[in-house]
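Cross-check.
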Amino acid sequence: MLIGSTDKYTRVAFDNEAEIEGVVADNTDLLFGPYIIYLPKTKISTVGGFGTIPDGIVVDIENGCWYIVEAERASHGTWDHIAPQVSKQLTAVSKQGTLDKIADLAIEQLNNDEILKSAIIDELLISEIHMHKRIAEIVKNNPIVAIPIDDEPADLREWAGTLKHEVRVWLIKKYESSNTKQILYSIPDEEVGGTTITSKEDTLPGATKAGGSIFRDLLKAGKVHVADKLDMEYGPRGQEKKQFTGIVRDDGLEVDGKVYSLSYAAVLCMQKAGSKRKTANGWIMWRDKNGKLMDELYTQLTPDQKR
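Predicted model, tokenized:
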């Protein structure tokens, strides 16, 4: 239950899978990260050879991985519905011709999104002429199976363990107010991402894969200290860059008197500079007094220092 000053929101069931699909489609950058290309079902339905169409395909430029997205309701069951659906989709995307078409669609989608393209060029330092090659290399890898779902069936982990592909689950919840019948949706917190439920190790680089607690790992290891100042330089493409400063607190970064995650603090500063961005990876934007990015400091931690 969610409690506000004037209303209470009780968890209720989704009407159907399409409702979960809609939540995912509207919030792909919050679920998968700020540097992703999302191909909805309507887009990938133009790719021949699919025996069944995934609810979406996500290409993560920053982390060099991609996902087939299958939104589900737990009530449909793992072995009766989820496993057969995913099996058909993995078979469909295993053909080289299909992978080539997915890469072409991703480039087409990217070329229609100047904000995302500029972010990839300016923040990930990938030139426009190398983007197609980067995407083609990414889709050569085995896709990760992404399952946004309203609950986790008891046998989902057992099934996931039989796959050679990594499986990640995003729990999506629906709440309805007792007075106004207003609907709210709950998705995993920023930077936490989906829960990996296979036995395989998570091989994605960088800090954001580990969740919000990693900031406290940096503090505990002495890589940053409370009251330290972190700096960020940003300006929309073609404009003069501005300098921003945040103050380290024990639960995040203080900007303008409020404490946020590194990523949300970065977004606020970017919007001040005139950007329309709604998400960003603050771990590759905020630097300490020595010019070290927070992501660099995290990679320096020993395994014992990481949660």
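The CA atoms of residues 234 and 270 lie 7 Å apart. The chain has two domains: 2-199, 214-305. Passed to J.P. for a second look.
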